Amino acid sequence: MGLSEGSTLVTLALIIIYFVVLLGIGVWASKKIKNSEDYMLAGRSLGFWLFTLLIVCSICSGMTLVGTSGFGYASGWPGIWEQIFVPLAAAFCIIFFGSKLNKIGREKGCMTLEDYFALRYENNKELRALSALASIAVSLVYLVGQYTAISIVLIWVFGLEHWQALLISGIIITAYTVIGGLYAVSWTGLVQGLILIFGVLLVSPFILSYAGGIEHINTVLASIDPNLVMPAFPNAYAAYAYCTPEFLFSFGILLIIGLACAPHVMSNVFAAKKISYFKWAPLVAFGIYLVIMLLVKISGMGVRVMAEEGKLDAIAATNAPDFALMYGIQAAAPGIFITGLFAVIVLSAVMSTTDRLMLTVGTEFSWNIFKTMLRPNASERQVVRISQICVLIAAVISLILAINPPEMLAFLIWLGIGLMLCSFAVPLIAGLYWRRATAAGAIASMAVGLIASIGFGYYYQFVEKLPMHFSIYALALAIIAMVVVSLLTQKNSDAALEETYTGPYLHPKELSK
Q: Residue 171 in contact with residue 342, Cβ under 8 Å?
């Protein structure tokens, strides 16, 4: 496996140009960073388009290209609901969390989800530490997916072994993150996200045209299995036929709410310059991401048709669907420049998300656990050093776990989102909208949700398949834990409830007038 010599040289040249430009942007933007608020939230100065695109780009990563296209390759149209649910997650986050958290952040100096939890639930240690541990667990799962995606691209471009690709990518990204990746993460992430968005718009038409168009794609898919062109599979009669109506119901909850609660997505709402942005940003974010996701998913279906008709070489990898888009563009691209550009698009998108996740692991442990729980008197230098060590440890753990990836990268994505849903959704939504939710209830909910999701996930993967996504069962237990424990414990003070705008309304009351 590997590209031709000409394509490889073009790809290398484009990668070098890309990183030179990225470094220049980082150096320029780093001069604007004077304190932690500037670094974490760009000084709360994101304009409408920058904020909206960052929401989209926080959800959309290289796994969107690799995992989503692989899902389309394997399951056809029944999996198309993902392309509605995921864009809705961006809208859900802005609508239900946006204006309240943005205003709380400005008034109380909150910069992270853990800062909000500490303020709302009047618990600065136990809940903060538990939330940080959950964030670390989620980030590690996502990192496994990111490194797997990078490995897939490097295998395709250079013909490497899987372990070689993992080792190379791990060294490059870890060095970039520890040494130079702390500069202007939001700006470089935005640029890389834009490359991904416009890259999809560029390469997808080549694949769809080479596959014969939508009508021909549907005809061939129906000849393989008539249910590949239906809204859902009637039952789980095959490994690819898990998108039954009941699974899709749970899938919607998983993606819409779970992704909206992701810490790296949530941080963007603290950074918006004006609360008025939350009026139109949901619609704009939904529209942009919907187009991108639909193109990627249908392109995966097109590659399945190309493979069926012998228009491309057989994909020999065990996780063949994840290579679908790469093989498709290699067969359909009019020249080596487009092929090389596509490789850069995927690598840049995945690497941007990867360094952000590694920084999340370092920040969560160094600030919310080491500084708050273990060494309150630690110096800033000690905190930074612990963060760097955690980045290295996160890289090692995620690389080891990525050695044996699942058959489809999409399953890793859903596992990470499931952990987010069960850990953060209940304490966050209850904290914002239910005045009776207590700190004990939030701790119980988060602990039960995280432990139950791991248990149900193990059962689903190694014992017996469940009719719905495993996270839904854990979510139900997390809701029960929140309600029961909150009703049995003393509610938080009225002062905490008022200053965090807790109640059944979307916007702080003075903003609704």
A: no
Q: Which residues contact 380 (CB under 8 A, 6 or more apart)?
A: none
CB burial string 348-361: b at 16+ within 10 A, e below = bbbbbbbbbbbbbb
- CA-to-CA distance for 89 and 264, rounded, in angstroms? 13
CA atoms lying within 13 Å on the CB side of residue 379: 3
Burial zone of 507 (CB within 10 Å; 0-12 exposed, 13-18 middle, 19+ buried): middle
- One-letter amino acid of 378: A
Instruction: Take residue 400 and report the two structure tokens written for it.
Output: 């080891």
Three-state secondary structure string covering 279-306: HCHHHHHHHHHHHHHHHHHHHHHHHHHH
Contacts of 33 (CB under 8 A, 6+ apart): 39, 183, 184
Q: Can you tell me which residue has the tokens 């969390």?
A: 97
Report the chain's mean pLDDT, rounded to a whole number.
81
Report the SS3 class of residue 308: helix
CB 363 within 8 A of CB 36: no
What pTM was computed for the model? 0.85
> CA angle, 308 as apex, 302 and 312 as ends, to 5°?
75
- Contacting residues for 102 by C-beta, under 8 A, at least 6 apart: 269, 270, 272, 275, 278
The per-residue pLDDT for range 345-402, each reduced to its tens digit, is 766 666 666 766 777 787 778 777 887 778 888 776 777 778 778 878 877 877 777 7
CA distance 324 to 315: 8
Contact between 275 and 107 (Cβ < 8 Å)? no
SS3 212: coil
